[in-house]
Amino acid sequence: MSKMNLKVNGKQYEVDVDPSTPVLWVLRDHLNLIGTKFGCGVGSCGACTIHLNGRALKSCQLPVSAVGTQAITTIEGIVAEMGELHPVQKAWLELDVAQCGYCQTGQIMAAVALLKTKPNPTDEEIDAAMTGNICRCGTYIRIKAAIHQAAKSSTK
Amino acid sequence: MEQSQNNYSRRSFLKVSSLTGGGMMIGFSWLANLVPNEALASAATAKEWIQLNGFIQITPDNVVKIFNPNPEFGTNVMTSLPMMVNEELQADWSKVVVEMGDYDTPRFKSQFTGGSRGMAQAWKPLRTAGATARLMLMQAAANEWNVPVSELTVANGVVLHKASNKSLNFGALATAASKLPKPEKVELKKTTEFSLIGTPQKNKVGKDIVSGDSLFTLDYKQEGMLIAMAIHPPAFGMKLKSFDATEALKMPGIKAVFDIQVYKDGYTRAGFDTRAFNKLIAVVGNSTWEVLNARKKVVAQWEPIETTKEMVAAWGGKKEETVPAGLESTDDHMKQMYAMQQKPGKILRKDGNPEAAFAKAKKVIEKTYSAPFLSHNPMEPISCFAHITDEKAFFVAPIQIPDMMKQNIMANLDIPADKIEMKLARMGGGFGRRAYGHYIVEAGHISKKMKAPVKLIYTREDDMTNGIYRPSYMVTYKAAIDENNNVTAISIRGGGIPEGAVHENRFPAGVFENYIAEGWDIPSNITIGAFRAPGSNFIAAAEQSFIDELAETIGKDPLDYRIELLKKAKANPVGKNNEYDADRYIGVLELVKEKSNWTKKDKNVKRGVAAYFCHSSYAAHVVDVTMKNGQPVVDNVVSAIDCGFIVNPEGAKNMVEGAVVDGIGNALYGGMRIEKGAAVQKNLNQYRIIRHKEAPKNIDVHFVKNSIDPTGLGEPPFPPVFGALANALYKATGKRFYNQPFINDLNKG
Ligand code: FES
Ligand code: FES
Description:
heterodimer; A: alpha+beta; DNA polymerase, domain 1; about 40% helix; globular; B: alpha+beta; about 30% helix
């Protein structure tokens, strides 16, 4: 066990965990930030997607010891950042994207990161950026439409 | 009528302090909302809920809450079922809050998610609950104003007396209404009078989902809760012999390692009590990562099972089931199934004289189709929370049919029925997997032993290697064709491991004078379970591919040929017990024909069609495919569905889109191989699930408009996707695809 300081959603936390613990489990078990989901634990589903310094990353593959001073953002931080729902979340609601909903926080985190680097992505760019995020319920078409809609609403 | 005091804050927000970290609180939101914040805030702080019946509670300051009875795994029942209640209640839908009902089947009459039955079973009781409550509220107003009920109207949660211009909202009337006798008889609206049902409504839980709120069992936490994982044998056909936990127990945060026996010896299993392994090693500790690491240190010895018999009391009575010893493999399974196909099976149905027709045939076409085991892989891995104390057994469970687990919990955990309390958490997918709640019993054993609240977590590997797969299937279709190019007989022979998928009374039964359907089973120690449209999800692919090939052989348009056959079955049905309604079948085919511009032939568009009936609904798809770098790209799908009256067109459309994507994904990529008794694909880096770039570019969904009571939608659109895709791939590649997943034969070139 070792004590570490983490910056999550703009707040400082001290955790006392095994340094090899993936950020996913630090968030879920120790910080109670359960919006980041466990799907596979091997980096293949994207349910655990967070941002590290603004870039989308699979938190099940990131040992907490590797974070250092880098800023972590989770789905909970996306909401807080804006004081209200993020435009991507709003687009998700407008297009009624979710079925079971389990993958959607990861999808949203991947989409938010994508729109930061590509404010107006093509279908192909969305496919490429989102390929690591599985939706077992098959809501892919709505996810793509919601990303386009969010892109439109923020370039307006 | 009872008043339930302050029941929201007690039961609905289980606030728990965190153990470490920022001193945060975590709440488990049972109550979903997409309502203005004021309504939510007053719902969250409400001191008094007045209960009008099992489905409806109202606060004096006019917050209306509707309970959804059915477990939610993504079919959007949290929205569509409360819509049914509110159609008759007539509260302001935009302000209605919905809450997931606890396990209390007597109160809700039915709590069932599976078999696409939710809508149909809820249709009358839920509207009746709404109408009853509205009448009581109206009666309360009539008493208050001393006017006859017949002079009152209701809109948006307000009762109005026009003549005197008096009005009161539901909240003001609720207390008085709750004391009135329940009306004996209520009249329900006709479908033409609906104002909410049939209109597209957004998911009431949408905001919670996109915010990452605590909704799922895996998110649930409680003071003092421990994390548990179970180790099961590495292969089917193996069982636990002994284990050494010395090293594991030295690991940080580990509380205990012990073995559990899930079901008692001699326990008679009910239909949903399937489990792969009966003895497991439980590893219990403080946190997930600690338990994950410690369980790697457990040294276990496994030994082969002997052939055993288990009693099963399921559909069709009590029977003995053989669990054969041995380490099975997919290659052996294929050989065994081919061997079964060479000899007659059990005759399931026979019309006319198929033997004579085949003997006389000018031409016989015969095609064999196969499919592998499939793992459900719901996105949220399996989990269950249990806290067993002397007073009660409390569970938070992701379970499709909670009442089916009651017997099992009682018998194997020695808990009387009246002590079982169960929260039904939102499920991160189910697809049939979560009808089999062995994990509830497992979590119960572990909590009992630990005398503590425990959350049992399956890793993805645990779930994927733990059986309850879609069975592996094989079927041969044969058609006799005479010298006039008429089909004179059809034969279907098929089976599976451990059960087959031949539906002898479905299309094309009823069409051909000479018809035979035969079936066989091969026992196996690999456990299986219902998978989205059980059986149909394979047989539709085979049947609809065969019909396509048959149409081509006799030179007919594949879509028109299907309609021609159904018209024949309608005019002159052959035999008895034909399950389908030919008119509704034709209806979806006509609709898909029109909406896909089927008759407008475009050489560059490679398309396939298929239609199927199951779970009381009808579905047809036209799938367009192009090949890019040797891989199929699905450019467009047009779907036509007849599932009776559509309650929520928005949610319904989403369901069909999902079924299409799921169908394409499983047809192309899905498959679980077994070697030496063990599942070969153990995680999502090995088991292929359809991803963004492989999904269809576009899906158009059309519903047949009618006022038939709603039937299922979760399953029926799924099976015909397989066939439509196979037929489109044929057009695109010149090759027929007989074996799932298609990608194997595609990549062979
Ligand atoms: S849980 Fe991290 S990618 Fe699946
Ligand atoms: S909505 Fe269920 S996995 Fe994406």
